[in-house]
Amino acid sequence: MNTGRTLKAWLVAGMALMAFGEAAPARDALLVVSESGLCGINGRTAFSEPAVRRALPGFDVRAEEREGEGGFYSVFIATDNGRDIVTLYGAETVVRADVAGTDAATDGGARIGDSFRTVYAGATERYCEPGMEVFSGRAVCLAPGSEQIALIFAGEATGPDDALPPGDELGGWRLEMIIWNAEF
Predict the structure, then answer these.
(1) What is the pLDDT of residues 112-163, one digit of tens each?
(2) N or C: which end of the chain has fewer CB atoms below 10 A?
(3) What pLDDT digit, counting tens, does each position of 64-82 carry?
(4) DSSP of 67-120, one letter per residue?
(5) Where in the sequence is the signal peptide annotated (predicted)?
(6) Homologous superfamily of 3-181 in CATH?
């Protein structure tokens, strides 16, 4: 697999859908994102409010219409105490989950709020690129050992938004979103 080309194609496809410390063990997180999906949500989960409610018990779920380059599309947003935690994209089935809740982690242990340096400590490979459009000024990276999970890091940068910051600067950036994509 050409990881760089695949991630770039995934990001471009994802943009069409959008107009818009220490790593703790994943088992301690309320929301765990794995290669197969998020909690009870995977690429076979119906893109419907009842299916999303069953998969994410305890969350309030609402549907929204958003406008993107290709017109309008629907999303489901799971909230907790009035905060948007998970945004789901799809058509007949769920194809993508954006997770921004502070109690979320990958099954590899990367948690929202972790530093880039912590997430990639000991990783032999990593692939990152500068974010585009809504992710401009951020780093978009594949999670260690993953082909389905992207990690969005943000922080202070001294350079342009369309370039990754130097390694020492990037090392201090924090994980702000975990994205699972069934079609990655």
Answers:
(1) 999 999 999 987 777 899 999 889 999 999 999 899 999 999 999 888 888 9
(2) N
(3) 999 988 889 999 999 999 9
(4) EETTEEEEEEEEEETTEEEEEEEESSBEEEEEE--TTEEETTS-BTT-BHHHHT
(5) 1-26
(6) protein yfey like domain (2.60.460.10)
* Distance, CA of 155 to CA of 184 (rounded, Å): 25
Within 10 angstroms of residue 55's Cβ, the number of other Cβ atoms is: 22
Q: How far apart are CA 134 and CA 105, in angstroms?
A: 22
CB 31 within 8 A of CB 83: no
Q: Please give the single-letter amino acid code of residue 97.
A: A
Choose among 54, 154, 146, 157: nearest CA to 100.
154
Are 16 and 132 in contact by the 8 Å Cβ rule? The answer is no
What are the residues whose beta carbons fall under 8 Å from the beta carbon of 18, sequence distance 6 or more?
66, 68, 89, 133, 134
Taking the domains of the chain in order of start, what are their residue ranges?
A: 3-181
Long-range contacts from 141-144, C-beta under 8 angstroms, 24+ separation: 141/116, 142/3, 142/7, 143/106, 143/108, 143/110, 143/119, 143/178, 144/108, 144/110, 144/119, 144/120
Q: Report which secondary-structure segment, H or E, holds 14.
A: helix 3-17
